[in-house]
Amino acid sequence: MAQKNAKKPQNTKKPRSKATPEPAPKLKRKEYEKEMLHLQTELCLVQDWVKATGQRIVIIFEGRDAAGKGGTIRAITERCSPRVFRIVALPAPSDREKSQLYIQRYLPHFPAAGEVIIFDRSYYNRAGVEYVLGFCTDDQHREFLNLCPNFEKIMVGNGIRLIKYWLEVSEKEQERRFEARIEDPLRQWKLSPTDLESRRRWYDYSHARDQMLDATDTPWAPWHIVHSDSKKHARLNCVRHLLSLLPYEKVEKPKVKMPKRSDKHAYDDVATMKDRRWITEYYKP
């Protein structure tokens, strides 16, 4: 028989920090699509507001490899005009670009009035992959971290809305996603030598991330960190947060009325298409 006054065993489980959240509950596809459609509808209102008021917005997406940057960017831009929401994903610099001022090749892509520019990786490459893999010197890395906050202060002072997101994926989930890329032909194009190297140098990238955040997380250009072990939750949370940062309002538009077809110059325009080079319809409606 157990003693009456026996002490209950203490809970030795360590509390989770903000950096290691409780696993997100399973999100059903219909729930995700319903909520995403609502958020994307709001993004279309943002688009109208950006055009009507001449806003200039820069959104930067950085994060570990396989953190889900591309999918989050697609969720933002899927229902919007590519003329307003423009994605910039620059390749490795050419020999000519390497000889330029470092920030120079990014400046032509900055927004004019009525544009939202989304950088899928950005000038912050110098603080991450370039530094870790030795594509820049320690002095160049140090100079970038010193100058970047001032450069961003000039951007914001010039009227550009600058929003920066860092997508953080756990080591275990990154490994799972890399393995999926290796096995799945539909994802193998995403796998690059730098991805595999980032796996090996996990802690080097962690150290570079910490240095970057310490140096460039400023009141005028703060970093917003997104937990991205669950891609669906990360996308919803990021889009919702983005909407919360923008003071957009619904822009009233004149009511559109569908015009009637004019019969002037009418002819059998279906018959003229009959013998054209139609593709084979393997999939029929």
Descriptive report:
The protein is of the alpha/beta class. Helices cover 40% and strands 11% of the residues. The protein is built from 9 helices and 5 strands. It has helices at 29-53, 69-77, 95-98, 129-132, 138-157, 171-183, 193-200, 202-216, 231-245; strands at 56-63, 85-88, 115-120, 161-168, 223-227. The chain has a 5-stranded parallel beta sheet, sandwiched between helices. Helix 3 (95-98) links the parallel strand 2 and strand 3. It is globular, with a radius of gyration of 25 Å.
Helix fraction bin:
25-40%
Radius of gyration: 25 Å
Write out the strand line-up for the largest beta sheet, numbering strands in chain order: 2-3-1-4-5
Question: What's the overall geometry?
Answer: globular
The end-to-end span amounts to 75 Å
Low-confidence stretches: 1-15
CATH class: Alpha Beta
Largest sheet: 5 strands, parallel
Number of E strands: 5
- The CATH homology group name: P-loop containing nucleotide triphosphate hydrolases
H and E string: HEHEHEHHEHHHEH
Number of domains: 1
Q: How large is the share of residues in beta strands?
A: 5-15%
Average pLDDT for all residues: 91
CATH topology: Rossmann fold
Number of helices: 9
Q: Based on the structure given, which CATH architecture is correct?
A: 3-Layer(aba) Sandwich
Structural class: alpha/beta
Short overview:
With 285 residues, the protein is α/β, with parallel strands linked by helices.
Give the tags:
5-stranded parallel beta sheet; alpha/beta; disordered N terminus; 285 residues; single chain; Rossmann fold; 5 strands
